[in-house]
Every structure is written in structure tokens, then in C-alpha cells.
Amino acid sequence: MRHVTRYRAYPGHAVERQLFNGFARCSFVRNWCLENRVYRDSCLPKLKEEYPELKEVHSKVLQNVVQQIVHNLRALKKLKATGRKVGKLRKKWVHSMIYEQTGFKLVGNRLWLSRIGEFQIELSRPVPGKIKQIVVKHTAAHKWFVAIISETPDTPELTTGTRSVGIDLNLENFSTDTDGTVFEHPHNVSKSAKRLRRAQKKFSRAVNGSRNRRKQRIRVARIHEQVENRRNDFLHKWSRYYVDHYDFIALEHLNIKPMVESLESKLRGMSKSILDAAWYKAREFICYKAANAGTYVHLIDPAYTTQDCFICGHREKKDLSQRVHCCPVCGYTAPRDLNAAQNILKRASVGWGTPESTLVEIGTATPPIPAVQVPVNEARISRR
Asked: Which residues pair with 269 in a beta bridge?
């Protein structure tokens, strides 16, 4: 099993200078390979003879730079094969370095990197297993982080429980499940919009190339970083809640891009809220946590989950403003999101030990479940 743990790093001035020099060398190699269309690390020995300053960087780091280009090109090729319109890789400045197999040593809270030096990292938790890779990264907020990729020989045991849940992601709240549990939408972007607007105005008025402009750029980046941290904190707590309490989780396989670009979303001003909710990231968080815990996650097609009646299956189109499902055929009445969550679980449970006919019979005898509001303070960090 592979683990990725991220730690804050505090390099001194001398080490920081060496790291920036390493970023410059890696950027040169990446841009040179793109310009000359050379995508094999066998070009590095000859390149080092022509540019001796490249010897100041560990050999594995430069090899990983070339290999990353190959991986990016393969990813673009796969997207193009599916009919997506893709561009090309452009020259850019590299802000990270990858050490693999050799060139690093971790002793206590001190990390030594070849051709860089030794610096302190904040070991907030122990590193599990054997270290395979070290990734050093500098963020736009002028902070240093070290990501340690490690491996352990253990494999998770698949769960044998029968606790199941269907989750409907929506904008009225963040999610509603079949047990009636409701998580509020955190609205992280809108809560920081005023601060961000003021900081961006001040940044745009600063003179290009001035010291004040550089300082203000970091302030703007730190507001964006705070929003991202709050979003990740909420999603981690949300996904951990469901992985710890259920053995089978049913989710919608949402395609976010058409939802954001649709005319209805633009007219109603929902695109910003959809992007702020980060439904794709929420799905990824719950999937990898479930894989580590041995829990099952089933992704289903979201088509008509809101329009279909959970009891009789009657399909009736609803406007977004209609928040209550009231079936004109069987009379089943429930909150719109709860009905959608029940349909999600019913579709996903077919083939998981329960035949579809049994599910319909169970659903017929199931009374409406009242919604239970989850306190937001337990699912989001403090704003201080």
C-alpha cells in the first residue's frame, strides 16, 4: 500500500538558495527537451557536458524531469483519443523537485538532500513504511512543503458488513444521504470573497516589478491557499465520516464541466457554487479512503435520479426550485435530495447481494426519513 504524507519545511537561507538554483536547472532541462523534442533521459550526460552547471543537481532529479514530460504527453494523447480538444506542453518554471531511491536521508525531523543540504521539517505524524520518493515543493504563498511517498507491505481486508448508504450531491446543501443526514455547503469562496477582492485591487494598483507588488502577490496567494485548505479540511472530514460509518457507499459519477458551462448554470449563477463544492475532489477523497479501509464504493450514472420516484419509478421532470418530491402516481412524498439519494443506492445495490425486485419491495414499505442537519462546526475548521 502506498502512502503520501505532507509536511511543512523550514529551509535556511543557504539551503533555500540551493533549492531555487535546483528549480532553475530543472526548468532549463524541461524547456530544452520541449524545444528540441527530446523525451529520453539518455540525453542528460551529453547535456551535462555542454552545460556543466547541471551537475549541481542530483541525477535522479533531472531524470524525473524528463520522465514527467513523457507522462504528460501520454496523458494528453489519451485525452485526444477520447475526442477532447487538447493543446501542447508549454515552457514554464518548475517549482518542485523529485528525489527517488537515492539522494535523501531522513533523521528525526532533519531531512538531507543531495546537492542541497540539510533542513528542518515539521514531522506532524510518523512516516509509515519505507520511503520511496521525496518531493520538495515551493508554493505561490512562499511556503515550503515536503511530500514523502512511502510503501507498506500490508493490504486492506475487504469489509464484510452490510451497512450501505446512498449520497446525493447538490447545491441546496452539500450532500444528503439515505439516512437523512445533511451536510451544509461550506461556501468557502463566498466567505473569503470580500478579502480577496480588496487584496486583488491593491495588487492590480501596485507598480510592476516593485517590492510592494511582490508582497501583495504573496498576500493574494495566501488567501487562495486558505480557501483551498478550508475546502480540503471539510472534504476530508466529510469523506472520513462515511468511510468510518458505512461498508457500501453509492455516489453519482458526475461530469462537472458540462454542468458548469451549461446556460442554465450561468443564468442562475450556480457555476461558482459548483466549482466551490469540488464534487470531483470529494469523490476522489472518499474513493481512496475507502480503498485503504476495504470499503466498497459504487459510482452510478446520475441520469434521472432526481426525476424518478423511489417507490414506483414514475418519472416526472422537476424544476430546480421544486425541493420536495411528490409522486402523482403512488403519492410518495419526500425531500427532493432524499429521494435522489434513495434512487442512487437502489441502482448501486443491484448486483451487491440484493436483487432489484427485493429492493423495490423494501422501498415500498420504507416510510419517509426526516432530514437531520449535521452541525457545520464539526465539519469545518475555525475561521480564526
From this structure: none
Q: What is the mean pLDDT of the chain?
A: 88
Rounded Cα distance between 245 and 270, Å, is 31
Residue 379's pLDDT is what? 36
In the chain, what is the greatest distance between 2 CA atoms, to the nearest angstrom?
80
DSSP code at position 53: G
Residue 61 CB: number of other CB atoms within 10 A?
A: 24
Instruction: Tell me which residues of the chain have a pLDDT lower than 70.
Output: 263-264, 266-267, 351-384
Q: For residue 179, what are the contacts with CB-CB under 8 A and spacing of at least 6?
A: 165, 369, 372
The residues spanned by each domain of the chain are 2-151, 164-187+228-379
> Which DSSP letter does residue 350 get?
B
Q: Which three cell numbers stand for residue 274?
A: 459548483
pLDDT (0 to 100) of residue 2? 87
Q: Are 54 and 93 in contact (CB under 8 A)?
A: no
Query: What would the DSSP string read from start to end of 56-107?
Result: GS-HHHHHHHHHHHHHHHHHHHHHHHTT------------EEEEESSSEEEE
Q: Which amino acid is at 226?
A: Q
